């Protein structure tokens, strides 16, 4: 952060350090008293990252490092790059002092056989001789490879403490619900053994009471194993993904010989080579090279290419910048995008060069970011709610058990006093234990054993389906967190856009306007087909009409149909203007196995444009051309060109560059028409026309139109010569003619508009997010105009929204920030710190925040968010490490699927709760009433019956209700807030209605069944009534599980049931199982086969749950909500979120 001692030269966008700087490094190094820029080549949109708000390394690490042979500490070297500090590098002695300090020969590199060569002792020429000469003993060149690795580290990160399966199981057991279940299981098992094998056991009664406790233990084991195996498998899958990406070779110079080594073998001091397409593996200082430009968007968020120049050139640029600023001149863009620092994680776009490695492993920018992101995830909202539910159930169940125990003990003492019934001392002890068992049984019945299983199964099922849809879930809990995500903060570059420039509009000649996907993008042409003025932020109506007035010959066409308006000779000219006048090329991507173009983003966009149109292969065109002279790109002329010799013996000069400059050099333009003659020969003469005043106006309008839409405009033009060099031109050498002598009198071929296009499906995904109540906010390092354009295209920027720049947002008072953030839709020129502050502010406001990103700079915000999404293909290792979910196909639209599946999981848990709590309430009330009413403490439902019911309402119901697939209808409601309870008013209404019905039928038939059915009180009659009650209760649960498939007030509970084969199969298994129990399970379950009449009654009583559910749904919810609030069943806050209702 900029200290008070730092100042800023007026008009200069980056800070200067004064002579009183307090920085430790500068004081220690004896900094010069003259003002020295801390950095060169950073415009204001990234200055925040690389200057005042850059992430600081912990310089206390390595203070006591043993430096037997080296003069520079590892963290001092790392701090040169992060933040980039040219002043500190200068104080170190520049590139020469740096390499001397770490002991490396700038020409011959390190020698793996011993130490580095000193600059004054080059090898004799052979590898063996070079190794033999590595014997000089003066430090730091006397340090061995082992010394270098010990002091500066290896290019590997410390192995993450990946938890074993046993550790994951132990962590899973810490869940409060499972702890409660474990206690209940131990007590139930102990008392079960006492009942089965203790005194007072009835002869002939099977010893099955202990099975209840065992069943709970099995349920706990299943939950722990399924959850732990899921976590272990996902972590292993992610680790394999990263390990595979890390396997690559790097070219270095060692002992004067170029060789390829494993990236993990790189050392500080290695001279590494740069090639187009390479990912920079370590931090370093650029030594030398030709036209090296790097894309640092993945590491820093800077979307413009950064040119790499030597240290000496950096110093010269700084002095020139100071001179121009002092004289009141503006700063050229070249200064704002050039430096000598190589940042790990950036990609080389073009050029070749070499650099010295100064930081590897965890001290590099990439490595340090990865290390800071390691940590355990926070509890998810659903986990927090389930923990609260566990506490509530424990309290209610405990209170019910204590109440029952007190009631039964009062009756027990009354019986003791009255002497009725007559009991022996042993029988009295058994009776007391029986009271304890009944009370504990009530508590066990109240505990929802299947709840953790329902959550685990829902997560396991969803993550498996999500993996099939290219969503790799690293943190299982993140799935359900996404259900209620209320804000999504997304990066622009590489997330909303493709991070690859593409041609999206253009003008061939003067009148042929084209646009990608013309339908819906008519505003990108200014032809006569569209006579409405474009919306612009100007007030001068006359000016607006002047800008948008049309030419009579203008016409529009879709980009895919360009070939229909081009004659064969014009098509070949257009293609050659792109393919020959370019240095980009195709190369195989090791990760995707695709063959993308590699080079500057502008050139790759043009080459891809030609390829998509099916024009002649770039390689064949380039190799067949006889190149006479090349004019490399220069920031002064803002153009590049090439002169080729034609087969006719004439010469053609192709030129491309900034349209506002090159169009002024043109005096003619090619002619196109809507109906081009396709029969002409490619060698035919190209029709051209002179540029007059009206034509100049058309050109100006076109450039202005594209500029207003933040498109980067490129002009393609050419000129033919009869001789080369042209007569009268200044000739410097045989292949070098002065550019100014022949770069005029050009013929305009086309003006091309390029931009980083949106990913397919982004507009629809943003619209779906808005429909689902998820606000999308965009954070980008680009300027306000570009950010606004992309945000409008995506549908992010809407009426009433706010766009703000990062520095302004960062400077806000925290209280003001809380007021601004709800209206903020676009954060432009933002640094990673700005994005993190935004996420923290949103979380302070109670929002559940999802963050997307693909770059290293997105890491802190991804980790801070509730859920972080990274890109599997374009995403950096840092982004993936920080994320919870990896989008394997890099499709932003996949986030909508994540929201759907998250809500599906959340609904599955709620469906299960709606089902099980109603069952639990019924079981608790029936157990309580029957225990109090029975003089012998006999229960309606025995332990074995309760076991079967628990299996139905726990394992089977969890599996059935957790496997409903996600549907788009889940996006039709708003997300719940973090404070929203698990139970909505509709759920409570259904739970109470079903529970009252089930309690009523069970108790009525339990106490009055003989009278209703006309049966006597014989043993057979008692068994028939008992079986009917058991049957009715079971079928009530089976039909209620169908009823619980809906959480809203819609009546069709069978919607989508055929798409869930698990539900159908489980319902069949439950039904068949119940029939078998009645017919063959008499001894264990104390039931008997019943006649058809009783079967019909029990089935009818169960089926009533479905029409009863429809009737309950028709009851208006608002009056009940108010009643629930008065009864303290709900709190007023629970009324705020949208409920599941029509």
Structural features, described:
- It holds the Pfam family Cation_ATPase_N.
- Its main location: membrane.
- The N terminus and C terminus are likely disordered.
- The protein starts with 5 loop residues before the first strand and ends in a 16-residue tail after the last helix.
- Strands 14, 15, 16, 19, 20, 21, 22, 23, 24 and 27 form a 10-stranded mixed beta sheet that branches. Strands 4, 5, 6, 7, 8, 9, 10 and 11 form an 8-stranded mixed beta sheet that branches. Strands 12-33-32-31-13-28-30-29 form an 8-stranded mixed beta sheet, with helices on both faces.
- The protein has 1142 residues and is α/β, with parallel strands linked by helices.
- Helix 33 links the parallel strand 32 and strand 33.
- 46% of the residues lie in helices and 15% in strands.
Q: Tell me the radius of gyration.
A: 38 Å
Helix content: 40-55%
Oligomeric state = single chain
Note the overall shape.
Answer: elongated
Which structural class matches the secondary elements? alpha/beta
Number of strands: 33
Q: Termini, distance in Å?
A: 53 Å
Give the mean pLDDT.
77
Total count of helical runs of at least 4 residues: 42
Percentage of β-strand residues: 5-15%
Poorly predicted segments:
1-65, 120-138, 528-549, 1135-1142
Largest sheet descriptor: 10 strands, mixed
């Amino acid at each position: 952060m900029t200290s008070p001692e730092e100042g800023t030269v007026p008009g200069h966008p980056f800070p200067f350090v004064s002579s009183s700087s307090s920085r430790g490094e500068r004081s220690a190094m004896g900094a010069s008293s003259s003002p020295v820029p801390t950095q060169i080549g950073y415009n204001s949109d990234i200055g925040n990252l690389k200057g005042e708000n850059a992430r600081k390394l912990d310089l206390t690490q390595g203070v006591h490092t043993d430096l037997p042979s080296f003069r520079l500490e590892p963290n001092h070297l790392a701090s040169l790059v992060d933040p980039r500090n040219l002043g500190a590098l200068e104080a170190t002695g520049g590139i020469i002092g740096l390499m001397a300090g770490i002991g490396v020969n700038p020409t011959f590199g390190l020698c793996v056989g011993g130490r580095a060569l000193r600059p004054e002792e080059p090898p004799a020429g052979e590898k063996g001789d070079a190794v033999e000469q590595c014997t000089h003993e003066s430090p730091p060149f006397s340090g061995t490879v082992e010394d270098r690795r010990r002091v500066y580290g290896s290019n590997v990160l410390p192995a993450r403490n990946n938890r074993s399966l046993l550790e994951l199981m132990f962590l899973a057991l810490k869940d409060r619900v499972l702890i409660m279940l474990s206690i209940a299981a131990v007590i139930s098992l102990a008392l079960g053994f006492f009942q089965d094998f203790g005194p007072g056991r009835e002869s002939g009664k099977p010893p099955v009471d202990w099975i209840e406790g065992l069943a709970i233990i099995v349920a706990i084991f299943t939950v722990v194993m399924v959850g732990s195996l899921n976590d272990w498998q996902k972590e292993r899958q992610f680790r394999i993904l990263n390990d595979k990406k890390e396997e690559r070779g790097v070219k270095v110079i060692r002992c004067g010989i170029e060789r390829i080594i494993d990236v993990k073998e790189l050392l500080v001091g290695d001279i590494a080579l740069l090639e187009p397409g390479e990912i920079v593996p370590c931090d370093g200082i650029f030594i030398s090279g030709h036209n090296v430009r790097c894309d640092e968007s993945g590491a820093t968020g800077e979307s413009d290419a950064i040119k790499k120049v030597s240290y000496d050139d950096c110093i010269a640029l700084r002095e020139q910048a100071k001179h121009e600023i002092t004289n009141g001149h503006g700063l050229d863009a070249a200064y704002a995008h050039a430096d000598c620092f190589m940042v790990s994680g950036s990609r080389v776009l073009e050029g070749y060069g070499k650099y010295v490695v100064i930081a590897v492993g965890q001290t590099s920018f990439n490595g340090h970011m990865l290390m800071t992101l390691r940590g355990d995830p926070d509890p998810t909202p659903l986990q927090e709610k389930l923990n609260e539910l566990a506490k509530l159930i424990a309290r209610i169940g405990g209170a019910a058990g204590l109440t029952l125990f007190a009631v039964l003990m009062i009756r027990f003492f009354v019986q003791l006093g009255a002497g009725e019934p007559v009991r022996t001392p042993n029988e009295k002890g058994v009776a007391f234990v029986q009271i304890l068992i009944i009370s504990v049984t009530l508590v066990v019945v109240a505990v929802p054993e299947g709840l953790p299983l329902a959550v685990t199964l829902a997560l396991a099922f969803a993550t498996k389906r999500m993996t099939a849809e290219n969503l790799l879930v690293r943190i299982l809990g993140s799935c359900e967190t996404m259900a209620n995500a209320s804000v999504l903060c997304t990066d622009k570059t590489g997330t909303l856009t493709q991070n690859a420039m593409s041609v999206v509009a253009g003008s061939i000649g003067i009148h042929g306007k084209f646009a990608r996907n013309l339908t819906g993008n008519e505003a990108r042409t200014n032809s006569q087909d569209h006579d409405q003025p474009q919306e612009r932020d100007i007030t001068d109506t006359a000016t607006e009409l002047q800008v948008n007035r049309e030419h009579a010959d203008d016409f529009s066409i879709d980009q895919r149909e360009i070939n229909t308006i081009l004659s064969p000779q014009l098509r070949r000219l257009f293609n050659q203007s792109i393919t020959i006048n370019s240095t980009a090329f195709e190369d195989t991507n090791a990760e995707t196995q695709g063959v993308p173009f590699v080079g500057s983003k502008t050139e790759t966009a043009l080459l891809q444009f030609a390829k998509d149109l099916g024009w002649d292969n770039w390689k064949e065109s380039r190799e067949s051309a006889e190149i006479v002279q090349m004019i490399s790109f220069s920031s002064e002329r803002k153009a590049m060109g090439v002169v080729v010799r034609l087969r006719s013996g004439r010469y053609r000069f192709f030129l491309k560059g900034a349209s506002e400059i090159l169009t002024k050099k043109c005096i003619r333009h090619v002619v196109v028409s809507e109906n081009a003659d396709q029969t002409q020969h490619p060698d035919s003469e190209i029709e051209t026309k002179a540029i007059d005043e009206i034509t100049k106006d058309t050109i100006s309008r076109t450039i202005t139109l594209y500029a207003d839409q933040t498109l980067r405009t490129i002009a393609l033009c050419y000129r033919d010569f009869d001789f080369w060099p042209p007569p009268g031109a200044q000739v410097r050498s045989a292949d070098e003619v002065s550019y100014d002598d022949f770069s005029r009198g050009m013929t305009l071929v086309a003006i091309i508009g390029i931009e980083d296009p949106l990913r397919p499906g982004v507009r629809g995904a943003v619209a779906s997010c808005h429909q689902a109540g998820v606000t999308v906010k965009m954070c980008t390092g680009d300027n306000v105009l570009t950010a606004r354009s992309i945000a409008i295209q995506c549908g992010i920027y809407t009426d009433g929204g706010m766009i703000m720049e990062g520095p302004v947002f960062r400077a806000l008072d925290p209280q003001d920030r809380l007021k601004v953030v709800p209206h903020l839709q676009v954060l432009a020129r933002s640094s990673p710190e700005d994005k993190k502050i935004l996420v923290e502010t949103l979380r302070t406001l109670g929002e559940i925040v999802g963050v997307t990103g693909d770059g290293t700079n997105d890491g802190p915000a991804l980790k801070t968010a509730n859920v972080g999404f990274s890109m599997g293909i374009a995403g950096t290792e840092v982004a993936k490490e920080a994320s919870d979910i990896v989008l394997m196909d890099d499709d932003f639209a996949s986030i909508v699927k994540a929201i759907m599946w998250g809500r599906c999981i959340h609904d599955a848990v709620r469906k299960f709760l709606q089902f099980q709590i109603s069952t639990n309430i019924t079981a608790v009330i029936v157990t309580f009433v029957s225990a109090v009413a029975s003089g012998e403490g006999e229960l309606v439902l025995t332990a074995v019956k309760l076991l079967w019911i628990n299996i139905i309402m726990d394992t089977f119901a969890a599996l059935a209700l957790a496997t409903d697939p996600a549907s788009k209808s889940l996006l039709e409601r708003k997300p719940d807030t973090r404070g929203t309870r698990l139970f909505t008013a509709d759920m409570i209404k259904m739970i109470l209605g079903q529970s009252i019905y089930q309690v009523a039928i069970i108790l009525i038939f339990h106490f009055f069944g003989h009278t209703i059915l006309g049966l006597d009180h014989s043993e057979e009659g008692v068994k028939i009534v008992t079986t009917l009650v058991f049957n009715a209760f079971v079928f009530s649960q089976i039909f209620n599980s169908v009823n619980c498939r809906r959480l809203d007030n819609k009546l069709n509970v069978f919607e989508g049931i055929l798409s869930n084969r698990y539900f159908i199969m489980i319902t069949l298994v439950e039904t068949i199982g119940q029939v078998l129990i009645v017919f063959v399970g008499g001894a264990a379950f104390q039931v008997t086969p019943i006649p058809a009449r009783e079967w019909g009654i029990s089935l009818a009583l169960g089926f009533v749950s479905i029409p009863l559910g429809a009737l309950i749904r028709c009851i208006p919810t608002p009056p009940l909500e108010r009643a629930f609030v008065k009864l303290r069943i709900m709190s007023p806050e629970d009324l705020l979120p949208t409920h599941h209702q029509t």
